[in-house]
Amino acid sequence: MRLAGVLFAVCTLVSNCLALQARDAHLAFPNSGKRGIMIGKIDSNTQEMQKPLVIDNSTGEIDFSFAIEARDRPSQVALLLGLPERDLEVVMEPKVTEHGELIMYKFKIDQSTVPKALLYFAQAEEQPLTASVILAKPENHKNNVLASPFKIRVDLDEAVEYRRPARYGAKPEIIHEFNPEPKTAPWKLVQFFIILIALATFGLVIAWMSSGALNFNSVPTNFNVVYLLFFILSIIGFEYIFVRYYAGTSIFDTLFAVLYLAIPSLWLGTKFLRNFGETI
Amino acid sequence: MLRNLLIGLSVLLITVSARCVEGSKTLVLYDERLTTISDYSIMFDSMKERDYKLDFASVANETVTFSLFDGDQRLYDNIVVFPGKGKSLNKHLGVKSLLKFSKHGGSMLTISSPDGLADSIRLFLNQLGIYPSPKDYRLTDNFQEKSDSFKVASSRVENKFIYNSEKESLVFANSSVALLDNREQIFPVLAAPRTSICSGKGDNVWAAGSQAYLIAAFQALNNGRVTWIGSTEFLKDSNSHANGRFVEELVKWTFKEKGVIKITGHDHSHIDGTSYEQAPYKIKDVIQYNIGLSQWNGEQWQPYDADDVQFELKMIDPYYRLTLSPGKKENITRWYTTGDFRLPDHHGVFTFQVDYKRPGLTFVSVSDVKAIRHLAHDEYPRSWEITNAGVYLSGIFAVIFAWIVFVIFFVSTSKVNRKVNVEKKNK
């Protein structure tokens, strides 16, 4: 009786210490018509498949299944799918069916049920999703299995719509865009017209002079020359006040200046025109 | 007079010696049926050394009354809540009372375990977006030597303002976990190992992998902080060799001994230093904005260095969002500046704002509302500054010139012509 107890304890110990393993691991693509892939055995030493699987628009679902002997039944069987380096993984539970001494585990990796965040990062940043199998029993840490038998590359026709959750942090910079400055004529063209106007003005003066319209026979003599000078200066003065007003002098300053100039210019101008006007 | 002087002196002494920015009066609530306070002596001794005033109160006796407020005045700055065996913590400490405490800026360290978490604490945490696992649900990791007692590398701590060490192994045992809402105010601190599961009786799995968290923190907009820890064992003296430093830093963060910043000043002006009051801003003026920030290091304020302080100029939407450049460093202040930038070509009432919210730091915000006026009628460019006007101006001056010349010619020339005509008539 005692021997049986010891044997049972040893058997239990050996059973616990034996490394867990899954067999007949298989990948199937039920909706796409693609051929399935046999992986075989999964244990701690399982190497990752060289080429990642591809989820595209034609691959709706990937079925990943394996079998474990009933006597090795683990208490924890899960498939982690995601980006472990980002701590972003979804845990998938298997569908379990028992066939005699074998327990069948089947995971459905459905594109429509994989979280958007995973699909987004996998597609936008071209990082394949890592599938990791967990087979574990309590107090058996050395023989539990955490293996990554395959990766999945996401290659969908349309971009995955995913809005990252709001997080405190620096936001993208914004620089105000100013309205464009109003368009103006090129300076060269303006210069051309200015020269044209200047030439026309001098042409006019030269035309006056050359047509004999100019002689200085009527230049006033004696005291009238002072009145003439003042008459001309008052006209220049009024033009000067106008230019200053145009340049920004206030209307009130301008009116005062006009008033100050108007009084003497009216008086002296009238005097000049009355004395000299008869000769014009 | 002497009394006032003594009161002032004592307030000054408290202010100088206190390590917490906002006060160190702390209430420790525990259920003596679950928690033996002496098991946590290292943590509490460390707090006492840092000038915390600790009041211990057992909630085991329902008849004992507690109050967190005297009217609207908070009686405590901080609360530490250990798990309770009963459903309610105490009839005087309901979820409303805890929410009020948090709304008034109080900070809380709550610890739960699979053995108990009072409903008031659970509901309070749920309000914040922290959802601890149900009673009797434990986290196990079958890939560790003891599945219910496991180690987590300190490099997995997600918030470097709370704890920044790469080398340590943190020990957890008899731990519950929490799922977290997707809120900005929640700062995940430590995720569960990716191979772990949280299960209850009958192997019902409540959470698995790194979706669940062992420690999480929350900071309200009023800077009241709440930290939740899923294991009482984690804080015990027996684990202090592994967790001691982390626990100390976590307590410091929760009770605002660290991760606290403040704005020491801000200003904006024209680039020549002329203030807004002297010359109100108009569109397209070139101005600069400066802000000073300080950080509490547990003993004194010191300049706060960062490269992510941002300024916003807003009128409903931001017109500018500029990352500020570090400027001069003063005694306790680091100044940050936008440098010269041109105000928008839109007039209106704008907000000059720095709203600095970073996980793990107290939220600071300052804004100044100022009007930016449009151009006055005489501030637009004059016509001679516009190239098109050159043609018109030259035309005007040509006419003036020709008019003056014409007058001179007319006055000096006309007599001869008339004389000629008269002579012709006489002939």
From TrEMBL, chain A:
Residues 178-276 form the Ribophorin II C-terminal domain. It comes from the Eukaryota. Keywords: Endoplasmic reticulum, Membrane, Signal, Transmembrane, Transmembrane helix. InterPro entries: Ribophorin_II_C, Swp1. It is found in: Endoplasmic reticulum membrane. It is a multi-pass membrane protein. The keyword Membrane applies. Pfam families: Ribophorin_II_C. Residues 1-19 form the signal peptide. The chain crosses the membrane at residues 189-209, 221-243, 249-268. One of its GO terms (cellular component) is oligosaccharyltransferase complex. GO terms for biological process: protein N-linked glycosylation. This is Ribophorin II C-terminal domain-containing protein. It comes from Torulaspora globosa.
UniProtKB/TrEMBL annotation, chain B:
InterPro entries: DDOST_48_kDa_subunit, OST48_MD, OST48_N. Coiled coil: none annotated. One of its GO terms (cellular component) is oligosaccharyltransferase complex. GO terms for biological process: protein N-linked glycosylation via asparagine. Pathway: Protein modification; protein glycosylation. Residues 1-20 form the signal peptide. Keywords: Endoplasmic reticulum, Membrane, Signal, Transmembrane, Transmembrane helix. Component of the oligosaccharyltransferase (OST) complex. PANTHER family: DOLICHYL-DIPHOSPHOOLIGOSACCHARIDE--PROTEIN GLYCOSYLTRANSFERASE 48 KDA SUBUNIT (PTHR10830:SF0). This is Dolichyl-diphosphooligosaccharide--protein glycosyltransferase subunit WBP1. It comes from Torulaspora globosa.
